[in-house]
Amino acid sequence: xxxxxxxxxLPPAVLAQRYRLERRLAQGGMAEVWxxxxxxxxxxxxIKLLKPNLASDPVVAERFRREAIAVAQLNHPNIVAVYxxxxxxxxxxxxxxxxxxxxxxxxxxxxKKLSPELTIHIGSCVASALDAAHQAGMVHRDVxxxxxxxxxxxxxxxxxxxxxxxxxxxxxxLTHDNIMMGTAKYLSPEQVRGKRLDxxxxxxxxxxxxxxxxxxxxxxxxxxDADTALARLQRDPTDITRLRPTLPRGLPELIHRLLxxxxxxxxxxxxxxxxxxxxxxxxxxETALLDTTASGSAPRPTPIDPxxxxxxxxxxxxxxxxxDPPVPEPGRRPAAGGSNGAA
Length: 343
Hints:
Layout: E1 14-15, E2 19-27, E3 31-38, E4 43-50, H1 52-55, H2 58-72, E5 82-88, E6 91-96, E7 102-103, H3 104-111, H4 116-135, E8 138-139, E9 148-150, E10 156-158, E11 165-166, H5 189-193, H6 199-215, H7 225-234, H8 240-243, H9 251-258, H10 270-295, E12 327-328
Antiparallel strand pairs: 1-2, 2-3, 2-12, 3-4, 4-6, 5-6, 7-9, 8-11, 9-10
Helix pairs in contact: 4-6, 4-10, 6-9
């Protein structure tokens, strides 16, 4: 009688004789996120653990491992750091920086709309992170609110490079151009068409995120994921000034340029987006100073989103694969995540 072995349904208490699993914090269709302790360095970490039913799939396991290798090469203040990638008893795990905060998805679910100042700050940080990734030869391919983390002190970090793809094709590529990967609401037109991607696809997705921050909804929604994805090929987004008339000068134009259907009509790089956002913020600040000088009142500080002032007892956030927004278990959630078709 033949017997087959499979990974244990529950992870061991300690992985690779180094990382102790404390408690499961969140889970999605393809991975679980655990709060862990690095016994060698005596620090808390986030551990993303591939589910047992997928760990035996060599393609999924290899893509999971490559995420860790790719992101570990990026050293940027707006990208969640990856510390280690391990295999233990048939289980695959990625060890990451633990970030106290919440996802932009959670923030939008609570507040619906954000201030232009906070939106500009988030856009600038994500654009900087994407520029670093693109400079390193990677396209993220799943930029969405669930993969953007915000800490109480205002730090913004991009996570989940689980379906990131190299800009240069290789013979052993595990994510082909003709496979549509990502979250339907935040796909670029070229992703929907299955075209070859470059960094401008991520910038389109960033445009969708900024649009949602200000308008309270994404510009394209259908009855199902397919309709939602195809909508961006059939029409342009509604002018955001119709939904939010009092935006800083230049911000609506920036967002609609990011949402151009043709990549060559968008900004060329994340650095260019960050520079444009900085100019818009500076001009808005100067206008505010002129207004306060003319009225004779003292200038007020730039408003901070009230949610970010709150202490987070259940703080660290983890976007999870196949769920937007994720459905976490109670407790602190860490800074890492998965995505549709990845991890």
